[in-house]
Amino acid sequence: MLALLHTSPVHVPVFDSLRDADHPGVPLRHYVREELLSRAVAQGPDAVGADVAAVLGEAVAGGARAVLCTCSTIGAVAERQAVGTGVPVLRVDRPMAAAAAAHQRIVVVAALHSTLEPTASLIREEAAGRRVDLRTVPAGEAWEHFLAGDRERYLDRVAAEVDAVRDADVVVLAQASMADAAARTTTALPVLSSPRPGLRAAVGAARSGS
């Protein structure tokens, strides 16, 4: 069984759909903890370390062979809290970051400001010391639309921000919730999102541990 730690319930159907399309039959168990993101934004990601560790422990006790954290803001915290769990703990955006790091000029777009630096740091880590030209771009008022439950305006605002990017080789959508905005863009640049490659990596880790 693969456990997924979310900070929004909107991710549950997204990952269930990806599982059905790419990994049929793989059992998923979702743990939604919205309060972790609000506290991480207000106090910093490290403030939720103990709570993340508690969720990981609950998932492992429930039979998880691996855990995927789908929140980019607390992804690094989840990875650090993996020590002692006995199972792989993956952040959903690492495979995306590895793909982005193969490019020279990288633009990271995020609707939530607290996600920009964690994603940029992860891409630099994946670049393994190779110099990259990395810029971060906040997607205006997109997050307010997300919080209001207006998914259409949220995705349209993100897509508009992506289409405004110039002088780049690749655009990275920093948050899993932004993935569907890629289909609304008109840019010729590659636009990377995290859910599909992140889930693929986590399913592989769960299978290796079974």
Structure description:
By secondary structure, this protein is α/β, with parallel strands linked by helices. Helices cover 44% and strands 17% of the residues. It contains 9 helices and 8 strands. A 4-stranded parallel sheet has the order 2-1-3-4, sandwiched between helices. Strands 6-5-7-8 form a 4-stranded parallel sheet, sandwiched between helices. Strand 5, helix 6 and strand 6 form a beta-alpha-beta unit. The longest helix has 14 residues. The model has no long low-confidence stretch (mean pLDDT 96).
Layout: helices, strands, pairs:
Elements lengths: L1 E5 L4 H12 L5 E5 L1 H10 L5 H13 L4 E4 L5 H6 L8 E3 L2 H7 L4 E6 L5 H12 L5 E6 L3 H6 L3 H13 L6 E4 L17 E2 L2 H14 L2
Parallel strand pairs: 1-2, 1-3, 3-4, 5-6, 5-7, 7-8
Quick synopsis:
This protein has 210 residues and is an alpha/beta fold.
Question: Can you give keywords for this protein?
Answer:
210 residues, alpha/beta, four-stranded parallel sheet, globular
Order of helices and strands: EHEHHEHEHEHEHHEEH
Globular, elongated, flat, extended or rod-shaped: what is the shape?
globular
Taking pLDDT < 50 over at least 5 consecutive residues as the criterion, the unreliable ranges are none
Task: Specify Rg, calculated over alpha carbons.
Answer: 16 Å
The number of helical elements comes to 9
Structural class given helices, strands, pairing? alpha/beta
Strand content: 15-25%
User: Major sheet: order of its strands?
Assistant: 2-1-3-4
Helical fraction? 40-55%
Sketch the major β-sheet. 4 strands, parallel
Find the count of extended strands (DSSP E, 2+ residues): 8
End-to-end Cα distance, whole Å, is 8 Å
Average predicted local confidence, pLDDT: 96
